[in-house]
Amino acid sequence: MASLKELKGRINSVKSTQKITKAKQMVSAAKLRKAQANAEAARPYAARLAQVMGSLAGKVTVSENSPKLLAGTGKDQVHLLVVANSDKGLCGAFNSNIVKAARLKAKELEAAGKTVLFYLIGRKGRPVIRRVYPKAIAAMFDTTDVREPGYAEAERVAAELVAMYDEGKFDVAHLFYSKFRSALLQEPTSQQIIPVPAPKIEVASDAVVEYEPDEEEILAALLPRFLKTQLFGALLENQASEQGASMTAMDNATRNAGDLINKLTIQYNRSRQAAITTELIEIIAGAEAL
Amino acid sequence: MALHFELVTPARLVRSDDVYMVVVPGSEGEFGVLEGHAPFMSTIKDGPLKVYRTEGAAPEEIQVQGGFAEVSANGLTVLAEHVEG
Questions:
Q1: How confident is the model at residue A206 (pLDDT cuts 50, 70, 90)?
Q2: Is A69 a residue whose pLDDT tops 70?
Q3: Which of A44, A52, A150 lies nearest to residue B13, judging by beta carbons?
Q4: Do A212 and B81 count as a contact with CB atoms less than 8 A apart?
Q5: Which of A42, A209, A210 is facing B10, going by the closest CB pair?
Q6: Helical H segments across A42-141, by residue range
Q7: Which end of chain A is more exposed for a tag (fewer CB within 10 A), N or C?
Q8: Closest CA in chain B for residue A226
């Protein structure tokens, strides 16, 4: 059995761990509210853009002359997996779930004879993917220097992706992120982003809409913007998910620490009592012997 | 009689107002939108968006970048990547 001093030390160390997890839980709760508000604020733009894209895509026929972002490169060989992770840990299985989804997809694609490349956003996904696919990492996007990835970052990622696409480095791109359902539930999601899938929203437009310049040019101008919006949306969802996951994980950790402290305290008290009893018996035995 | 005008950026809904007229710097020339404008869609070049709250009032200018305008029965919606002012 551990000595009294050791037990006391352990209780103290668990207590200080609990303080950390509790603090992180409260920080996450505050940040979650903000991230949710951000995600909500971004919705009107995304919805409108998807609507416009839907009505345009219905009017433009995909041909060889269509923008490459919509029509694809005509090949299906190299797949780029864009994996969006967070920069910080302490958020349970959040990052590993996203990476797991990406690895499953990668395995599936490789089994089909495709080439797989990775584009990593955020710091936490790097070690795992680097270990499993050391040569397949095409680029890494660093978000450690900004407090929360926003539209500017989405813009830069989109620009890099489009540049790589134009150079013919990949044919199809998938985006992996975590969709925010609730603070308890985050869903790793994958979604094709290049070539841009035509939104399925059917807009009943009986009015004759005039376009300036023509439909195709507007569509060409909108495609990169649509890509940015999707990336931005994914980043926002990811942030909300991260905070949600972190909150849940830290809540569990705090509770576990509490249980552990209780158990250790009981053990501590018992051993203290046992020590006192032994001492008393010794004294009484000594007195009786006289 | 008023034109419903919405200005939206990726980060938030900047403006949702009833105004008299908006002059939009379209990529093929400026155009003004009043209530009852025909359905219309245009890309926008970077420049000032002039919002007239009432007839004859001094315009309020909003700088937009990377934008796109849509006029429908519900009014005018401007989607812009960046907005100043």
A1: low
A2: yes
A3: A44
A4: no
A5: A42
A6: 43-59, 68-71, 94-111, 126-132
A7: C
A8: B10
* Look-up of token digits 């908006």: B22
Residue A154: its chain B contacts at CB < 8 A? 10
Q: Which residues pair with A173 in a beta bridge?
A: A80, A194
**DSSP string covering A231-277, please?**
HHHHHHHHHHHHHHHHHHHHHHHHHHHHHHHHHHHHHHHHHHHHHHH
CB A225 within 8 A of CB A154: no
Total residues belonging to chain B:
85
Average pLDDT over residues A223-235: 88
In chain B, residues with a C-beta closer than 8 Å to the C-beta of A150 are 11
User: Domain boundaries in chain A?
Assistant: 4-20+251-289, 35-248
CA angle A28, A34, A38 (to 5 degrees): 135
What's the CATH superfamily of A35-248? Answer: ATP synthase, F1 complex, gamma subunit (3.40.1380.10)
Kindly provide the b/e burial profile for residues A142-174, where b requires at least 16 CB atoms within 10 angstroms of the residue's own CB: ebeeeeebbbebbbebbeebbebbeeeebbbbb
Neighbours of A90 (CB within 10 A): 18
Which residue carries 């509210």 as its tokens?
A: A33
Bridge partners of A192?
A174
Give the span between the Cα atoms of A149 and A236, in whole angstroms.
8
Most confident of A196-205, A254-263, B65-74: A254-263
Give the separation between CA B33 and CA A140, rounded to whole angstroms. 45
Chain B residues lying within 8 Å of A40, measured CB to CB: none
pTM of the model: 0.85
How large is the average pLDDT for residues B1-19?
Answer: 87
Question: What ipTM was estimated for this complex?
Answer: 0.81
Give me the CATH code for the A4-20+251-289 domain, please: 1.10.287.80
Q: Domains for chain B: give ranges and CATH numbers.
A: 3-68 (2.60.15.10)
